[in-house]
């Protein structure tokens, strides 16, 4: 079915979009070759801040990848028929997201051949080993399930029975990819900002807000550009999921603020002070965090009001606000906040460099290219079934 992505009747805008993404990929590749030749010195990383933009983007995208479970679980376990049209949309989004996750890990390693050490010399007590297992397992499951279901629809036959059981198996994998990622942080005792038993639940609930919000936006974009209609009921149910998940996410973030400042735990106070007000003259992330606050308030106001939530324009604004807010919180702030303040209370600020940003843009372009191809196939197949 791959030929469906390159049909002659595709619009010029579609091919221009793909060419634009290829240009961004080329730019990212150029800077990655520079990084390979010069080493990670081209990044803003240093002795104290050993994880930066790459791992932050990885952490954020793991949450986006886990979003597929929010349509797979209701559809396959609870027979929610409204999600029938968008289940494959969620699975294909998960495929692109996991691919980006793996690429961000590779570029962060400096010498990519080191990744084979986890395969050749597995360390079973290492969260990184299990992260590799669950990420690749989740990717494989979504490829097999999504492609098989779409191919069955293309051939106008029912999917094989085993597809349902494999889709159900993706549910614990979706939970595991974010849980194990949280363990990577929570298992480091010297970084108290991350040292929390609630980190994995906070990651998961944030993912269940971010992913469905993006799915809603994708459904609106597909309807505008291709006429693909996910259905009002599916959008309504997804919007309710986003509302509850994002409300709980903000509640848990507020609990972190209370724990740090009411109990006067210095290490946690320093990290949060650095994020929202700056510390010792270092304040790179402060403007981003106040944008996060503003977007979070806007999203909650729009989502908690049933009238604005049922309005398509307001819902798109709310979902975009959720996505950008969580991108700032997870994709920019979370990782540096745990490293900028070292165990001795010193501050070593981290600011991403141009090569880091360009490589990150290139990886995002790869993800967008993959998902554009996959969605083009989906739309074309569904059009032919009419």
Account of the 3D structure:
The chain is mostly helical and 386 residues long. It has one domain (2-384): Formate dehydrogenase/DMSO reductase domain (Formate dehydrogenase/DMSO reductase fold), CATH 1.20.1630. The chain has 14 helices and no strands. It is globular and about 65 Å long. The chain starts with 11 loop residues before the first helix and ends with a helix. The model has no long low-confidence stretch (mean pLDDT 90).
Helix-strand layout with pairing:
Layout (H helix, E strand, L loop, with lengths): L11 H27 L14 H13 L3 H9 L9 H22 L7 H5 L6 H28 L6 H26 L12 H28 L5 H32 L2 H11 L9 H19 L1 H4 L2 H28 L14 H31 L2
Helix pairs in contact: 1-14, 2-4, 2-7, 2-8, 2-13, 3-7, 4-6, 4-14, 6-7, 7-8, 8-9, 8-13, 9-11, 11-13
What are the key terms here?
386 residues, mainly alpha, 73% helix
Order of helices and strands: HHHHHHHHHHHHHH
Biggest beta sheet summary: none
Q: How many strands appear in the DSSP assignment?
A: 0
- The named CATH superfamily: Formate dehydrogenase/DMSO reductase domain
CATH C-level = Mainly Alpha
CATH topology: Formate dehydrogenase/DMSO reductase fold
- Helix tally? 14
As a whole number of angstroms, the C-alpha radius of gyration is 21 Å
* Uncertain segments: none
How many structural domains? 1
Assign an overall shape. globular
Short description:
The protein is mainly α.
């Amino acid at each position: 079915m791959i030929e469906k992505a390159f049909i002659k009747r595709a619009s010029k805008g579609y091919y221009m979009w793909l060419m634009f993404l290829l240009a961004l990929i080329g730019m990212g590749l150029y800077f990655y070759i520079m990084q390979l030749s010069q080493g990670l010195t081209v990044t803003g990383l240093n002795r104290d801040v050993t994880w930066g933009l790459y791992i932050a983007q990885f952490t954020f995208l793991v949450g986006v990848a886990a979003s597929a479970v929010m349509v797979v679980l209701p559809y396959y376990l609870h027979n929610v028929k409204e999600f029938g049209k968008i289940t494959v949309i969620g699975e294909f989004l998960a495929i692109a997201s996991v691919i980006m996750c793996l690429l961000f890990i590779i570029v962060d390693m400096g010498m990519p051949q080191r990744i084979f050490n986890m395969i050749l010399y597995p360390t079973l007590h290492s969260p990184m080993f299990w992260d590799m297992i669950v990420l690749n397992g989740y990717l494989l499951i979504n490829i097999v399930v999504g492609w098989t279901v779409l191919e069955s629809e293309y051939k106008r036959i029912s999917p094989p029975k085993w597809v349902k059981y494999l889709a159900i198996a993706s549910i614990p994998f979706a939970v595991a990819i974010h849980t194990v990622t949280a363990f990577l942080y929570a298992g480091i005792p010297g970084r108290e900002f991350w040292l929390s038993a609630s980190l994995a639940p906070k990651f998961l609930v944030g993912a269940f807000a971010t992913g469905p919000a993006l799915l809603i936006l994708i459904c609106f974009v597909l309807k505008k550009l291709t006429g693909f209609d996910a259905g009002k009921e599916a959008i309504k149910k997804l919007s309710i999921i986003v509302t509850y998940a994002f409300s709980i996410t903000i509640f848990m973030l507020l609990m972190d603020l209370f724990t740090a400042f009411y109990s006067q735990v210095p290490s946690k106070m320093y990290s949060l002070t650095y994020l929202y007000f700056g510390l010792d003259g270092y304040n790179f992330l402060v403007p981003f965090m106040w944008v996060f606050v503003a977007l979070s308030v806007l999203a909650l106001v729009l989502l908690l009001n049933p009238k604005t939530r049922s309005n398509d324009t307001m819902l798109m604004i709310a979902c975009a606000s959720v996505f950008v807010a969580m991108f700032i919180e997870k994709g920019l702030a979370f990782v540096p906040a745990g490293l900028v303040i070292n165990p001795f209370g010193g501050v070593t600020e981290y600011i991403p460099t141009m090569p880091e940003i360009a490589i990150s843009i290139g990886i995002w372009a790869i993800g967008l290219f993959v998902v554009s191809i996959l969605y083009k196939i989906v739309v074309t197949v569904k059009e032919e079934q009419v």
